[in-house]
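for the recovery benchmark. tokens below, seq after
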């Protein structure tokens, strides 16, 4: 029997008519009031207590949302993650339902701790929708979803059409917030925020109860303002912020507010302190984009929300020939600068806290400046704090990683005590076990393990993995540069060192990439460049004794023995027990590599 040939025009036409007929049978177009709602700060609540949050959300859905929607003659179209979409034949019913839900949530949240409360944002629009197989689509649905995004926590935002039909018919007041450009909606939408009428002072205050801040540093990236006067440039500013949020979210130590919440502030004049309070974050990044002719200028500033104090600010400029490449470069620069800036601010905050209020994270922060110094005495101070942090949280991967590094410092510059080496490797293993997806943990532990075991190949694989997880980490690039330099992968060491310096030009750990550049040029026979980078390493960390050995050796090869002796003198002042033979034994290099450095050092008066 022959099969149908759909290349035949007549049969093809019949098939199309049949398909269109079936499609019309399952599809309908009508005017409806659409209600869209979702949970404020859902990702934060899930991180804090996933089972409890899901249970609470399902309870609210079954006990409140579903009954209220049915009571007001509405229909639940679908639940979407933490959100709900419903339709009503009457605008009045939709708004009354939303008001009842929000008022009921105030009462339901009363006995719940502020950081565990579920609050909804609700958006309502009147518009044309397409009904197909029980679902609804169309512009009316899209606008309702965007209105939900700009609603205040515990509040309701509506379009002008909704407000005009309701007016004074309910015990509510409308606040005109003006025309707003909502994402993926080409025309401006007039947005009204609802005030829920007569509330007790207690109920009114509950809506404004702030979120508890996460333990790790938290940030919201607000939409950048388009200063070009050309609405078509919004896509560049929005794309830049999208990429910034994505890249910051890769930094395991940061809590980053999701895009939908951040973009609810688009087109609005905002108070940074209020934004930080609404979203429950410590830091807010805001900025602007201006295009003039073929040049683009981006300004950004990081603000600590509680005190509205500036943590970081910068201005970046470039040519607009290739917007996507320019966007990538801007994102890389901003993310690279933000991470160490926030780290410094967090350290300062921890140092200001009372001793009796310190938790494991605070103790880790207080240890960081001592770990960065890279000297035996400072390493011991850091270890005391890190060990106390690990008593409070034995699974704290980052504390294990830094404890491993401090033990490595004590081993190499404190007398080659085998106990330090053994404990360092134990902390490395714990860091790998507890921080398997944390790029910062992986890069530190891989660096320490490579130095102690000389298994460079395994370390480079782990470092590459950490850079896959976060390709904007100056810390990971710096450690990768050093490991590659130690095993004479000179070109890769130079590439990663320069990336680290570009990402974070004022980082306190920049002596790492400078040391890597020194060694890579030394092993390549470029002694003048080696001396230059060794001097820069000394400037970045004047108390790190090893850099003076590199500097002295480079000066010897250049025939500048006076300068070499000055560097050697400072080396002995910092490390009185230094000997060339110990330097040879302790070096994290292959034997042939370290021998060339030792031979140069033997030409000046240093203890053998």
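predicted aa per position
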């Amino acid at each position: 029997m022959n099969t149908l040939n759909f290349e035949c025009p007549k049969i093809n036409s019949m098939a199309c008519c049949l398909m269109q007929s079936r499609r019309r049978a399952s599809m309908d177009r009508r005017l409806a009031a659409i209600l869209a709602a979702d949970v404020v700060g859902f990702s934060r609540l899930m991180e804090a207590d996933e089972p409890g949050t899901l249970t609470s959300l399902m309870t609210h859905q079954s006990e409140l949302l579903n009954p209220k929607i049915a009571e007001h003659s509405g229909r639940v179209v679908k639940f979407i993650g933490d959100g709900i979409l419903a339709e009503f034949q009457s605008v009045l019913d939709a708004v009354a339902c939303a008001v009842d839900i929000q008022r009921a949530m105030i009462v339901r949240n009363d006995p719940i701790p502020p950081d565990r409360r579920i609050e909804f944002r609700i958006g309502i629009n009147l518009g044309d929708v397409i009904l197909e197989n029980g679902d609804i689509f169309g512009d009316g649905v899209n606008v309702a979803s965007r209105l939900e995004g700009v609603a205040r926590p515990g509040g309701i935002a509506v379009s002008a059409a909704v407000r005009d039909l309701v007016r004074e018919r309910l015990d509510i007041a409308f606040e005109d917030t003006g025309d707003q450009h909502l994402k993926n909606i080409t025309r401006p939408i007039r947005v009204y925020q609802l005030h829920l009428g007569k509330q007790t002072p207690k109920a009114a205050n509950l809506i404004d109860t702030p979120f508890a801040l996460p333990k790790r540093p938290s940030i919201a990236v607000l939409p950048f303002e388009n200063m070009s006067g050309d609405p078509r440039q919004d896509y560049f500013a929005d794309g830049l912020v999208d990429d910034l949020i994505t890249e910051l979210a890769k930094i395991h130590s940061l809590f980053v507010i999701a895009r939908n919440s951040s973009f609810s502030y688009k087109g609005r004049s905002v108070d940074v302190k209020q934004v930080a309070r609404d979203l429950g974050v410590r830091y807010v990044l805001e900025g602007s984009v201006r295009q003039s002719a073929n040049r683009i200028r981006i300004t950004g500033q990081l603000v600590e929300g509680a005190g509205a104090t500036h943590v970081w600010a910068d201005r970046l400029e470039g040519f607009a020939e290739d917007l996507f490449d320019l966007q990538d470069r801007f994102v890389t620069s901003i993310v690279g600068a933000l991470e160490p800036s926030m780290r410094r601010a967090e350290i300062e905050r921890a140092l200001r806290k009372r001793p009796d209020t310190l938790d494991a994270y605070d103790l880790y922060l207080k240890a960081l400046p001592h770990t960065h110094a890279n000297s035996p005495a400072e390493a011991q101070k850091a270890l005391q704090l890190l060990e106390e942090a690990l008593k409070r949280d034995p699974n704290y991967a980052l504390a294990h990683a830094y404890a491993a590094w401090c033990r490595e410092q004590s081993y190499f510059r404190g007398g080659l005590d085998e106990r330090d080496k053994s404990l360092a490797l134990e902390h490395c293993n714990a860091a790998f076990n507890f921080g398997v997806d944390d790029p910062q943990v992986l890069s530190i532990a891989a660096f320490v393990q490579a130095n102690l075991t000389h298994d460079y190949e395994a370390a480079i694989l782990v470092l590459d993995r950490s850079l896959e997880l976060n390709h904007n980490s100056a810390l990971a690039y710096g450690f990768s540069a050093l490991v590659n330099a130690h095993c004479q992968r000179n070109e890769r060491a130079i590439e990663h060192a320069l990336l680290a310096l570009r990402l974070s030009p004022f980082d306190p750990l920049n002596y790492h990439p400078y040391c890597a550049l020194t060694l890579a040029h030394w092993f390549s026979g470029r002694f003048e460049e080696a001396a230059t980078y060794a001097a820069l390493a000394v400037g970045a960390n004047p108390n790190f004794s090893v850099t003076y050995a590199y500097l002295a050796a480079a000066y010897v090869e250049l025939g500048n023995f006076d300068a070499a002796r000055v560097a050697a003198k400072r080396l002995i002042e910092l490390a009185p027990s230094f000997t060339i033979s110990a330097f040879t034994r302790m070096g994290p290099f292959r034997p042939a590599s370290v021998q060339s450095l030792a031979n140069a050092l033997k030409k000046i008066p240093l203890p053998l």
